[in-house]
Amino acid sequence: MSTPEQEVEYRQHRFSPPPGATEIFLVRHGESAPAKGTDPFDLVDGQADPDLAPEGRDHAERVGRRLADERIAALYVTTLRRTSQTAAPLAAKLGLTPSVEAELREIHLGDWENGLFRRYTHEGHPIVERLWREQRWDVIPGAESMESFGGRIKAAIGRLAAANPDRRIAVFTHGGVIGEVFAQASAAGNRFAFLGADNGSISHLVVSGDNWMVRRFNDTSHLQSPFG
Question: How, if at all, do strands 99-100 and 167-173 pair?
Answer without folding.
Answer: unpaired
